[in-house]
Design goal:
- The protein is elongated and about 70 Å long.
- The longest helix has 16 residues.
- The strands form 3 sheets. A 6-stranded parallel sheet has the order 3-2-4-5-6-13, with helices on both faces. The chain has a 6-stranded mixed sheet with strand order 8-7-9-10-11-14, sandwiched between helices. A two-stranded antiparallel sheet has the order 1-12.
- It is about 40% helix and about 15% strand.
- It has 2 domains: about 180 residues, Response regulator (Rossmann fold); about 130 residues, Response regulator (Rossmann fold, 3-Layer(aba) Sandwich).
- Strand 2, helix 4 and strand 3 form a beta-alpha-beta unit.
- The protein is built from 11 helices and 14 strands.
- It is an alpha/beta fold.
Length: about 350
């Protein structure tokens, strides 16, 4: 599977764009307000008319204004700092991602600050605002659109990871989820399975791509399954366990299952064992993410592996170019299948 570098053209911009340094006074001139008003709008101060704030932020976004790190009074203006926002530091996916961020930041002598939304999307915007006042750039997983994030970003360079929504304003790191789902399903089809189910989860990261890809592959191979074979659950071991129980009740004839992440796959494996369903003899099982824990379960889990550390490194690469006043094309990471003993 190929990984595309940051310098390839894409539909968003064609190539990285150099951007001249824009000052606060430039924004004020275009917006027709004082530079004090621009400062209040960008820093989210309450003493400003909402319409004026909206207009100032729109101008700042169009001009790609970025506040001076010195002007923001950073404690160590000689050290570049990057804030990282993840949904859940307990989920084993995100420590590997954070490790990749730290590794790439260390190679540049940058500092990293990590925080979590605790799986509460409503916290994203305020965390962006508060963290943005402390760091030079932000990397994170976000469910909000550009328009919803804009008032809170304050011009700080921002890299969005695996959101599934394009951006003309911020750096992007994308995961080719569709390619990974196709690989997992085709592996099961190649093993002779036709009654294949998908255990999915509610996700802010391209929430429809897994289901849509499942439907496309089902159509291509004329499989005797439909939307009823997509079971949605919570993205946890317990969620996978519960989803598998529902699947067996609805479709006891399923011979294979692809789970949208490894935690859910492990939960499904746990439920299968409890029901006396033998894996892979009675049911083949494929996970997604490639978590290290998948090697430790019995039997070891076949999975669509995503290099989480590399994902973090690509995010820092995007930050590097944003800090050089470029808007780079998205960096794209493609997963690959690792076959173990559950298929």
């Amino acid at each position: 599977m190929a990984e595309r570098g940051n310098d390839e053209p894409n539909h968003r911009s064609g190539k990285a764009r150099s951007v001249n340094r824009v000052t606060l006074r430039d924004v004020a001139k275009v917006a027709g307000v004082s530079h004090q008003t621009v400062s209040r709008a960008i820093n989210g101060k309450g003493e400003i008319d909402p319409e004026t704030q909206r207009r100032v932020l729109e101008v700042a976004r169009e001009l790609r204004y970025r506040p001076s790190r010195f002007g923001r009074g950073l404690v160590r203006p000689d050290v570049t700092s990057v804030g990282v926002i993840v949904p859940d530091v307990v989920n084993p996916f995100f420590p590997e991602f954070i490790a990749g961020v730290i590794r790439a930041a260390d190679s540049r002598n940058w500092r990293v600050v990590v925080t979590s939304t605790e799986n509460d999307p409503s916290r994203e915007q305020e965390i962006v605002r508060s963290l943005g006042q402390q760091v030079d750039a932000i990397v994170g997983y976000f469910s909000h659109t550009d328009e919803e994030l804009d008032p809170y970003v304050g011009g700080v360079p921002l890299v969005i990871v695996d959101r599934g929504i394009d951006s003309s304003t911020y750096g992007l790191v994308k995961v080719d989820t569709a390619a990974g789902i196709r690989d997992g399903l085709r592996h099961l089809i190649d093993r002779g399975h036709r009654k294949i189910a998908l255990i999915d989860w509610e996700s802010s990261c391209d929430p429809v791509v897994r289901g849509n890809t499942f439907r496309e592959v089902v159509g291509e191979y004329d499989l005797p399954v439909d939307d009823d074979w997509i079971i949605v659950g919570e993205q946890s071991i317990a969620g996978g366990d519960a989803a598998f129980l529902r699947l067996r009740e609805a479709h006891p004839d399923a011979t294979a299952t692809l789970a949208a992440n490894d935690l859910m796959a492990i939960g499904a494996l746990q439920a299968a064992r409890r029901l006396g369903v033998r894996v892979p003899d009675d049911l083949a099982l494929v996970g997604y993410d490639g978590l290290s824990i998948g090697e430790l379960v019995e039997p070891p889990l076949t999975t669509v592996h995503l290099d989480k550390g590399r994902l973090g490194e690509l995010a820092i690469g995007q930050v590097d170019r944003l800090l050089s006043d470029e808007l780079p094309p998205p960096a794209v990471l493609t997963p690959h299948l690792i076959v173990r003993s559950t298929t």
